[in-house]
Write a structure and sequence with these properties.
Length: 810
Amino acid sequence: MAEIAAIRALKAPSRGLDMQCFKLMSKNLIIVESPAKAKTIEKFLGPDYKVMSSFGHIRDLRKKDFSIDVDSNYEPIYEIPAEKKELVSKLRAEAEKADTVWLASDEDREGEAIAWHLAEVLNLDPATTHRIVFHEITKPAIVHALENPRTIDLDRVNAQQARRVLDRIVGFELSPVLWRKIKPALSAGRVQSVAVRLICEREKEIAAFTPQPFFRVTGSFGIPSSPAPLRSELNTRLESEQEALQLLEACKEATFTVEEVTVKPIHRSPAPPFTTSTLQQEAARKLGFTVSQTMRVAQQLYEAGHITYMRTDSLNLSDLAIKDISSLVTEQYGEEYLHVRHYHTKSKGAQEAHEAIRPTYVANRDIEGTPQEKRLYHLIRMRTLASQMADARIEKTTLDISITPAAPAIVCDGKNFVAHGEVIKFEGFLKAYAIEGEGNAPYSLPSLPVGTRLSAETITATERFTQAPARYNEASLVKKMEELGIGRPSTYAPTISTIQSRDYVERGEKEGVKREYKVITLTPAGISTATDTETTGSDKGRLVPTDIGMVVNDFLTEYFPDILDYNFTARIEEKFDEIAEGSLGWHKEIDDFYKGFHPDIQKINTMRMEHKVGERALGTDPKTGRPVSVKIGRFGPMVQIGSTDDEEKPQFASLLDGQSIATITLDEALKLFELPRTLGDFEGKTVVAAIGRFGPYIRHDSKFVSIPKELTPQGITLQQAIELIEKKRADDASKIIKDFPEVPGLQALNGRFGPYLAFKPLGAKKAVNYKLPKGTDAASLTAEEAQKIMKEQDEAPAKPRATRKKAAKK
């Protein structure tokens, strides 16, 4: 009865709420998984509700153990991490005091599992515990959830447990194989390894691709009584420079006539509202956000109550949301711009989230928040509005321009110029949101009747090259994973972050290389040929596999093809969906997988390999006659001279940035052993170039200076090294404000956040930093004043360490 009264109190006017809540102090405990979410919910509830956060999972598989009892039907063995034990004690104490406990973690499977673990740890009965879900954090949604509680959905919990157990089996059994066969500290994962495979296979396609030249011909024609020329393009590309010259030669005395005019009305429809993957893709394209950045900002918007739940496959909008959007579209743009649409999800294995990502209050044009939050909110809001707007109506015109040479020319047969134009007759949803071609104003063609003669102003044949497949960026990788059914909305961002943090994949930084191309131009003055340059092969911002990623992928593809198979991975996801629906038992699925997978692990562990995985023989060192090879070593890709079977120890050298074990030559490998290299003397001290653990460097007078990327330790000259040394000295000098000879090791320095004191006593490995009081002039500070500041800060009571609150990781 108390809980019913409390819910009624929420719906009552504010004064009545205070009066009724006063009588029901702290009778209800609501547990959510994120402190930010708790803070927002508290604003809607009175003092009869206490809202606490579990800070994500309060229980998980043991970190260092297998934690799966294979002999007991693969039951997972959970533990409460040490850092969560104090929190669990507080939650238990509050749960015992409360009349009703409401578990309000997120509505997806991970959230359902969090609720189940809470019920287990807090000794709540899962069959009767109040489980509430809401896909937006607004007062109506929370009141509705409190009025309609349910029990914990054990099918969803089992789906999450099945995923967790399967991933633990793969990771815990497969990773040690990589340690033994390739290098220590590597990891393998059911989804991450497949994502790496996609990137590696694309890289192999690019390496095998040979660009083929061709010529693209464009024409600019003068129009009677019009100052603007007509832009057009030849309807076919030409295979060679000779063919391009022949065509332009034939066009010298040719006549050009409008042969056909086609006017066609087309409709362009808006895109549906955002799902997780489409939001990640569009935020990358329009805002330049990474996938993880998009999810972090979206989580902040959700927890602040600005948008609906951000991990969803659904395209659905609630009836209430459509009603609000319709009213706003009609009010803001006019009734003719409204077109109510109901979208249906088509992606493989769409999960059970209820709505697409939309604003909770679509009428709110602006929100309070960071610039990133405001930009992402605006993107979501305008996409949501556009999804319920009318089609754009466009009139597309096509002109076919025939070529009639003065003398018959085979090169002109079947060829004509084509001009395309568009006129927007009704903007529709484009008034709110452009899907494609944004920034390009429609090109309107003049009204020209068939038979109109045109004069050629310029005809240009430009050499182009066929394009290799594009490397994935984060957004296009998410799109591909979704197409193949690999992973789910909650796993895209963590997977992409993991494969980068494991050094299997990196974001490209290569600017590309210059390439020449020819431009042949016909004007009334005649034909001219010029050469221009363009940059090609840039991989900036793209996902590029590292040597380690390529070697690991090749190994797993050869010895564990099922784990790396796209269809197998997608089928596993479908089985998780079936478990969540209650139509499949999870224990049998895990058993079937383990009985096929575990023997393969045992087999590979006993297999003796002739060479280390990924090793490639380069040839023989001419100086010593010893073999030279390249492979993955303990600290990454390296070249080795000699072998462990020789009496003399092998020599090793790490590869430089930009070098790869797949492409490095014998000469390039041998140059790595020229280091350390003595460049000469400077100020009576030797200058040496070398490579260390943190990259190439110069050593002079026991000091070290990094060598920038545009130089190499093998090619750097003494003069270039001296310039680097002097620049480093100048930078260091500008950093030092003052030395204190009376106190050895004490300096006043310029730092990122202003001047500060640094004290490094003789023999100490690290300096201790001290903040200067506001208004202190560091340059005029005496040694006594500096020591007083240090003493005061040393004796001050330690402040409790601030911990940044983070949203629970999914």
